Amino acid sequence: WSDGVSGGRSRGFEPCGCPGRNPTPIYSINPSTETLDILSELVGLQQRVRTEPRLFGSALSIQRALQPTAVRTRAVPGRTCGASLTGTRPTLGPLSDFTCVGRQIFSAAFGSQSHGSRGQSFSKDYLFLTNASLPDTTQQNSEKYPDVSAPDLSERLMTPETPLKDSNQEDRSFSDSSLFSHWGQDLNSESRRVALKMFQYYGYNGYLSERLPMDRVIPDYRPEGCKNMSYPSNLPQVSIVFIFVNEALSVILRSVQSAMNKTPSHLLKEIVLVDDNSSSEELKEKLQDFVGETNAKRPGFIKMVRHSKQEGLIRSRVSGWRASTAPVVALFDAHVEFNTGWAEPILQRIKEDRTRIISPSFDNIKYDTFEVEEYPLSAQGFDWELWCRYLNPPKSWWNLNNTTSPIRSPALIGCFVVDREYFEEIGLLDEGLEIYGGENVELGVRVWQCGGSVEVLPCARVAHIERAHKPYTEDLTAHVRRNALRVAEVWMDEFKSHVYMAWNVPQEDSGIDIGDISERKALRKRLQCKTFRWYLVNIYPEMRMYTDTIAYGVLRNSLKNELCLDQGPDTDNVPILYLCHGMTPQNVYYSSTQQLHVGVLSPTIDDDDNKCLVDVNGRPRLIECSYAAAKRMKLHWLFTQ
After folding, report:
1. What is this structure's pTM?
2. SS3 for 195-234, per residue?
């Protein structure tokens, strides 16, 4: 689903890159039978919305109250619950009114709308609550209104690349695959077929990777000042840990070769390979042969850790840390290539202060052509769903007028270098986080709140493959959501409400098991860590706060209960009715200032402002809240519970 996140570069589901969500998702969605049934309903719904414009009602439902005083009825998973309106007070109604499956629901009526400080109100025909028909494109209106009918499904749900599930899966046509957009036109049909199969399996061009040198030269994108720097010879040694599952052998070997070539031999103590239970046969015998040949020349230089079951990213990193022996540990994916001089600036910063956790600056290895693309220097942060994101460096960094200076970073994007003993002292990674997600944010927040710091070094550059799709995981969203709530409960104090809001989950009885957090809370107490408010004020002041939100959820149409307010296509700024699905485009937040925010919460002040529901000449529009307020537009909604 497109959710219109702006700002920051989008990346695939990668530990060393942010799991991006751009308007054209590059990851794969594999719909279940239930999803396909819903999609078939959507096809019919599009025509209904076009032919039945009078679907807007005068009362709406908001799900999932934020405040504990809200009127709620607790649902039992698999059962139905509901509420009906009597005047402006919600009362329990027939159980058939709503289907909520374990969610908390209360009903609400919207009264008159005030027009800023002018005090104007509209007792009947306000915004889309009227029964007016949709705009007639043949009318000669002063304002041209886009079609507000439901968009085609192709605009909302896309599966650009479907990972290969078995050898009998039918190939996608070559013309449909992004692999051949900029590469492979000179291949014959059989070679293209082989390349496509490998692309579907790995999420990148494994066919091309096998034909590239293991020790190829990549562009040096370091700032010029970095190339003239010198470092002491007595820097601490480093163990480089590579984590993988079903990675292409050629990509792993190139990562290892790159580490050996670009890290001074007296600083590189060992390489640790962590195989998280790969099923690929070439990662068994062939990889073991490579390890044996290397260790014959440098005894014990490469260590191999193999999991008997898939443990996930977080526990794999901890496995690699446990196997390492150098004073400093670097945790990376096994699809990276190191640039010249990457290690020395990192090791020097850690030698100066062992409580620093360092991230290199990342460049992109294009998944199709394997060309290395320069990325601009950035800090690393997160949004309220705890998806990591790239940030502009802070003003304090720009004021230095020195592009070689370390960049203070609120969080980490996944791959990092840390003093081995300090990492243990602050609690390693939270092994209660499952599979993927949240661990980078949790570590960054924990380090800052507990007395350490996080930096990105412009002089240390590492190129990283950004996959077109994650081939070995169906859907990471459930894991990321669960992990985000766990992190929020341990570290974010009263601001944990923002994470629940962003995921559109009730704070009480969410139905999501985040596991036992007593040990992590005890760790926080033992380390005497600061509050999350301190973190927001001093480390991440760019983060928007939503302490004035009093309710959040979805707006459900009272005449057609299966329809919800939806932000519609991002480019139109015209809200629509759409089959209720509860995903980000239908998230609604009601503030104490009587504003209705629709869609994703804007993460930082550097991003576009939130979209507010606004009455423009009696028509519904989504307009940036700050702009609408400055123009004294009709965006304040009187809410009666």
Report:
1. 0.76
2. HHHHHHHHCCCHHHHCCCCCCCCCCCCCCHHHHHCCCCCC
